[in-house]
């Protein structure tokens, strides 16, 4: 029996306009179960979607599972320590990549270039623009708040290949590298996992609900473990093959309301 809904956002829940369609909103509003958004996004980039679904105030899983929030309360988090953050910035700069640093609702970029503008358009959040050395000084001076929840490299594919390989070689025991696109690498603390974060959330806020009672939707590599362990793992048609193989069910493309269509047919 399905008792909780959990979904990735980009490439899964959103339509071709990168928003939640009226049909998807209506179907989800008709479900009288907890609804959890679980994404690589920062919290501020998820609140407007929660508001659209009328679930503002519900827990959210951010940064691929590195941060779990319920309102302003941190239920679970992992962070990249300052020394590793500094090394990642050095690697990104060495290969002339755009390096973005995230912590909670803070997002720092060195310049408002095409990469930052694209992310701003996609997430409806405006970053703080400042020299990367100033950002590092800030993280160092505020280490009592923890390290970075995510670092993102964006740039040329060939340069990204080299940067990814170097970061993996030097820091593999401390970080988790995830290639979300050929031109994007998302870097989170070692141990970051949507599956782990979802388990933590259930134990802390929904102890009466087991993983086998969860329906979860996803499309990309970072969704694979989560879809494989829940009772109802559903991959959208546009998902990676490894994600489809891990899922129990396949639904329509995210641009065709795949999430809502599966829910309508199965709940």
How many helical stretches?
A: 10
Pairing-aware structural class of the strands and helices?
alpha/beta
First CA to last CA: what distance? Answer: 9 Å
Mean pLDDT: 97
**Tertiary shape:** globular
Order of helices and strands: EHEHEEEHEEHEHEHEEHEHEHEH
Give me the side-by-side strand order of the main sheet.
5-4-3-2-1-12-13-14
How would a crystallographer describe the biggest sheet?
Answer: 8 strands, mixed
Helicity, as a percent range: 25-40%
Q: Spans of 5+ residues with little confidence (pLDDT < 50)?
A: none
Number of strands: 14
Amount of beta strand = 15-25%
* Rg: 18 Å
Provide key terms for this protein.
267 residues, alpha/beta, 8-stranded mixed β-sheet, 6-stranded mixed β-sheet, 37% helix, globular
What does this structure look like?
Helix 1 runs parallel beside helix 10 (258-266) and helix 3 (82-94) packs antiparallel against helix 5. The chain is an alpha/beta fold and 267 residues long. It has an 8-stranded mixed sheet. It has a 6-stranded mixed sheet with strand order 8-7-6-9-11-10, covered by helices on one side. It has helices at 22-29, 44-52, 82-94, 114-123, 132-141, 157-171, 194-205, 224-229, 241-246, 258-266, and strands at 4-7, 35-38, 60-62, 67-70, 73-77, 98-103, 106-109, 128-129, 150-154, 175-181, 184-189, 214-218, 232-236, 249-251. The longest helix has 15 residues, at 157-171.
